[in-house]
């Protein structure tokens, strides 16, 4: 296991498998990489990288994008990672294509799903995602709930004045299926940067509500010291990353970009280019590059830091409603 200079182990690898998406979410950070990159790792490339990472003690892999289910070979990608025998293999998706791929993904080793569901109101969902697809996604959620995945999480980015009043409704929806609910703080990254001041919510009101209506179970020490709550039988995870030294102190993750670079942090550079070693299947060279990347890891937010929330406020209209 690799430990960085701040005592944090590297346990998890987020794998960005493509740089395209069929949604246009107003807050998308695109995993800190560019859109429409010219080079894309093959399924075999990804399998090679994950096998080396596993040798270094990384045993938890999450597939993301873009929208990963836009890759025609996404089942092969899952199969390549599954072959190395990871402790955990999950995938984050907007849910649009789950009716096509979910069964094959499960049969090839995928065990967990994260499904983005930022509103249960059709107009709000369409505004947030840029796609009028709520009904289709809800049908797909109902479908995959019966397939036997070990765990399904609903990802909700909290947007002030837009969807934060839906949290009790989201909890009831998650309870219906036995899902985990993950509430995520808006990040001033990518598309989220210009709308940050308008929609940023520090989650304090939500946390107060959770304390009143549920109970604190503890924190996820293996992943950003995330607080865990239980409300009406539903586990609720809080992803409060912005200007949060506690979150950074518990970081155990790096990101593999879709063109073969290793990002030490969503918010910052540097990145280490792994492509020369991937292309030539240089196992020793790749291992050394990963060890070097781990040595560059450092918290983005530290005690005493402060965030700048001064951005232009924007009004938007959804039907007859103005936000």
TrEMBL record:
[4Fe-4S] cluster 1 binds at residues 21, 25, 28. CDD domains: Radical_SAM. Its EC number is 4.1.99.22. Pfam families: Mob_synth_C, Radical_SAM. Pathway: Cofactor biosynthesis; molybdopterin biosynthesis. It catalyses: GTP + AH2 + S-adenosyl-L-methionine = (8S)-3',8-cyclo-7,8-dihydroguanosine 5'-triphosphate + 5'-deoxyadenosine + L-methionine + A + H(+). The keyword Metal-binding applies. Coiled coil: none annotated. Signal peptide: none annotated. [4Fe-4S] cluster 2 binds at residues 248, 251, 265. GO terms for biological process: Mo-molybdopterin cofactor biosynthetic process. Catalyzes the cyclization of GTP to (8S)-3',8-cyclo-7,8-dihydroguanosine 5'-triphosphate. HAMAP family: MoaA_A. Belongs to the radical SAM superfamily. MoaA family. This is Probable GTP 3',8-cyclase. It comes from Vulcanisaeta moutnovskia (strain 768-28).
